[in-house]
């Protein structure tokens, strides 16, 4: 049974998940390297690398424009959606291709297979939605929106903030965690269970599941960004 590599800060009662920090840092470097490599030698007539970057930007811009009506919010969310999609996509794939264990401790795995990471992303999105809502309507007007279209919906609208946070974060976590657990079971439990026969059977099964997990990781990055834009779009729209 693998253990989490956690660093406790003496005297504070706080603990730091080293695994999440290592994975997130690696993927931040990867995202920077991808963007740097694709954006070098930008030309009026785009080359192949520039076309890839522009396609990614247009793709995430489309998500923003489809779900956020306010032009000012669209302008500020364009870069956020692009970086969020690329960052989560890379995080989702990390554990499929690289897992490092030292003894019983897991050192490197997908950061999004940890609920703390996905909850951090969800909290960031919700805080942005509050910020844009207050900027659009003012503090008083924004708070009054919780009682629209009718006042008795106030408790439901408040509860919805918590459910949005949980569904946004746990959907991503659950899909990535389940994919990595099943891949681990195929490799460490099914493969050695009956010798050479199960090893031969487990190899193509692991490859198929790994390919499927890449697809799921891509879809989940898209879903997370789309729902983030939906939540923010609702905050800047008067019902």
UniProtKB/TrEMBL annotation:
Function: Key component of the proton channel; it plays a direct role in the translocation of protons across the membrane.
Membrane-topology annotation of the record: Multi-pass membrane protein
Gene3D superfamilies: ATP synthase, F0 complex, subunit A
Cellular localization per UniProt: Cell membrane; Membrane
Family: Belongs to the ATPase A chain family.
Transmembrane segments: 20-39, 77-96, 116-134, 208-232
Protein name: ATP synthase subunit a
PANTHER family named among the record's database cross-references: ATP SYNTHASE SUBUNIT A, CHLOROPLASTIC (PTHR42823:SF3)
Keyword Ribonucleoprotein: no
UniProt entry keywords in alphabetical sequence: ATP synthesis, Cell membrane, CF(0), Hydrogen ion transport, Ion transport, Membrane, Transmembrane, Transmembrane helix, Transport
Source species taxonomy: Bacteria, Bacillati, Bacillota, Bacilli, Lactobacillales
Domain of life: Bacteria
């Amino acid at each position: 049974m693998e253990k989490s590599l956690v660093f406790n800060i003496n005297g504070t009662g706080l603990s730091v998940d080293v695994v999440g920090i290592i994975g997130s840092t690696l993927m931040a470097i990867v995202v920077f390297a991808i963007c740097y490599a694709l954006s070098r030698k930008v030309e009026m007539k785009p080359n192949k690398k520039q076309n890839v970057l522009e396609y990614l930007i247009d793709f995430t811009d489309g998500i923003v424009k489809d779900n956020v009506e306010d032009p000012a919010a669209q302008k500020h969310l364009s870069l956020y959606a692009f970086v969020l999609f690329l960052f989560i996509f890379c995080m989702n794939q990390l554990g499929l291709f690289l897992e490092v264990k030292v003894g019983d401790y897991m050192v490197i795995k997908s950061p999004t297979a940890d609920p703390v990471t996905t909850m951090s992303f969800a909290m960031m999105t919700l805080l942005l939605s509050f910020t844009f809502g207050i900027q659009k309507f003012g503090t008083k007007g924004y708070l009054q929106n919780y009682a629209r279209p009718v006042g008795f919906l106030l408790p439901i609208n408040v509860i919805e903030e918590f459910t949005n946070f949980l569904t946004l974060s746990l959907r991503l976590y659950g899909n990535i965690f389940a994919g990595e657990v099943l891949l681990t079971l195929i490799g460490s439990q099914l493969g050695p269970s009956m010798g050479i026969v199960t090893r031969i059977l487990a190899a193509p099964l692991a490859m198929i599941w790994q390919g499927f997990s890449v697809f799921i990781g891509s879809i989940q990055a898209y879903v997370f960004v789309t729902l983030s834009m939906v939540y923010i779009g609702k905050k800047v729209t008067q019902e």
